[in-house]
Amino acid sequence: MDFPKILFNKEGFKFSAISKNNYKLEFTIENKNIILSQIIDFSLIKLIYDLNADIYEKVNLEKINDNEAIITLVMKHLFEDIGLPQRFSFFNMKKTYENKKIIFEGETIMTHIPEGMPENAELLPMKKIICTCNIITPHKIEYEFNICFDNNLLIPDFLQKMMGVIINKIFKRVKQFIENLRL
């Protein structure tokens, strides 16, 4: 595969393969009724998953402080029919501020498996996940999610496109929810 490659570009969402096992999602959220930077915190991360109960079986967000949390996500067994294992993510997420940007950076916790994981579920090996929220105006933010999986994870081409569709579905719901907020 030649890189970068756009895997999904629809309805304001662009999902690309940047390099082997490295993906980027880009979209913009705008709401003239609220100051968006004031709602960008770990509760927004939890909202992402709460709005997608058809994709996630379990979500746990353990806030360490205002700038750090431990997040556990168990995906529903979406690809059982094609023999792929159920996956979960377990990572430490840190929030920083930098020049009109709010950045969430997460790394997989490899030292242990969290309690309550389904039998035979496997850790989704992510090297790093970075969400950069570029504050364009108080009411408009450009989001860029970079997800870098472990190089040993084999992601077939057909699965990359399915990932794009699922990720689009997840963030489209969040975008619609936030753009329709009236505070």
Can you lay out the helices and strands and say which pair or pack?
Layout: E1 5-10, E2 13-19, E3 22-30, H1 42-50, E4 56-65, E5 68-75, E6 87-97, E7 101-108, E8 122-123, E9 126-137, E10 140-149, H2 157-179
Describe the structure.
The chain is α+β, with helices and mostly antiparallel strands and 183 residues long. It has a single domain, classed as START domain (Alpha-D-Glucose-1,6-Bisphosphate, Chain A, domain 4), CATH 3.30.530.20. It contains 2 helices and 10 strands; from the N terminus they run βββαβββββββα. It has helices spanning 42-50, 157-179; strands at 5-10, 13-19, 22-30, 56-65, 68-75, 87-97, 101-108, 122-123, 126-137, 140-149. Strands 1, 2, 3, 4, 5, 6, 7, 8, 9 and 10 form a 10-stranded mixed beta sheet that branches. A hairpin with a 2-residue loop joins strand 9 and strand 10 (140-149). The longest helix has 23 residues, at 157-179. It is globular, with a radius of gyration of 16 Å. The mean pLDDT is 89.
Q: Largest sheet, if any?
A: 10 strands, mixed
In which range does the helix fraction lie?
Answer: 10-25%
CATH superfamily: START domain
Amino- and carboxy-terminal Cα gap: 46 Å
Q: How many strands in all?
A: 10
Helical stretch count? 2
Q: What is the strand content?
A: over 45%
List the domain count as a whole number: 1
Name of the CATH architecture: 2-Layer Sandwich
Kindly report the CATH topology: Alpha-D-Glucose-1,6-Bisphosphate, Chain A, domain 4
**Given this structure, which CATH class is correct?**
Alpha Beta
